Amino acid sequence: MHVEKAELADVLVFRPEPFRDDRGLFTRTFDARVGEQVGVQAAAFIQDSQSRSMLGVIRGMHGRSGRGEAKLVRCANGAVHDVLVDIRRESPTFGAQQAFMLDDVEFRHLYVPPGFLHGFQALTPTADVCYRIDRPHDPAEDVAVAYDDPDLGIDWPLPVTLVSGRDARAGCWSDLLATL
Ligand SMILES: Cc1cn([C@H]2C[C@H](O)[C@@H](COP(=O)(O)OP(=O)(O)O[C@H]3O[C@@H](C)C(=O)[C@@H](O)[C@H]3O)O2)c(=O)[nH]c1=O
């Protein structure tokens, strides 16, 4: 498993080496020893989640107030266009965004430190995204910015087929900036 630094400060991309044969494939999805070498402690991730999205669905852009949460994100089935936005004022990449292809071919696995907005669009008929967080989910700390906010200007690859009611009502980037 290799680890690459993303363009966004402190974001890491874990790249496993899937083993394929006539049966299908085997891949490690994470290796605690590799994580430890780059400062990511596997034991910190205390809640695992999985979502399934249909083609064109967007979930995001979601963040967390307070001290935020760190995340490990991967796509176990299908493919997603995954987007991060750095919302850490003190960061050299504050306000910048980066997109990643997460799929069940390369199995890239993102480490996202606290202080980011996160969202994705499903690129396949179904896409299963698995993520682990280092604090229990608390809806009271949910922060959201509209996926189509013009100031954020995220370039989603497909027409949008569906978003949640919460995401449809999400606030704007400039309002979030005023709170940071
Ligand atoms: C995120 C989450 C949701 N839920 C519940 C709340 C709600 O009833 C139902 C669906 O929640 P949502 O509609 O908020 O799920 P979703 O829109 O998929 O939210 C997720 O989006 C991606 C982009 C992220 O980065 C995640 O951190 C998370 O915010 O599941 C939990 O119980 N635990 C959780 O950790």
Automatic annotation (TrEMBL):
Question: Key word Zinc present in the record?
Answer: no
Hey, which pathway is this one from? Carbohydrate biosynthesis; dTDP-L-rhamnose biosynthesis
Its UniProt entry gives the catalysed reaction(s) as:
dTDP-4-dehydro-6-deoxy-alpha-D-glucose = dTDP-4-dehydro-beta-L-rhamnose
What Enzyme Commission number(s) apply to this enzyme?
5.1.3.13
Q: Extract one GO BP annotation from the record.
A: dTDP-rhamnose biosynthetic process
Q: Which PANTHER family match?
A: DTDP-6-DEOXY-D-GLUCOSE-3,5 EPIMERASE, THYMIDINE DIPHOSPHO-4-KETO-RHAMNOSE 3,5-EPIMERASE
- Note the subunit structure: Homodimer.
Q: What's the protein name?
A: dTDP-4-dehydrorhamnose 3,5-epimerase
What organism does the record attribute this protein to? Rhodococcus tukisamuensis
Q: What is the lineage of its organism?
A: Bacteria, Bacillati, Actinomycetota, Actinomycetes, Mycobacteriales
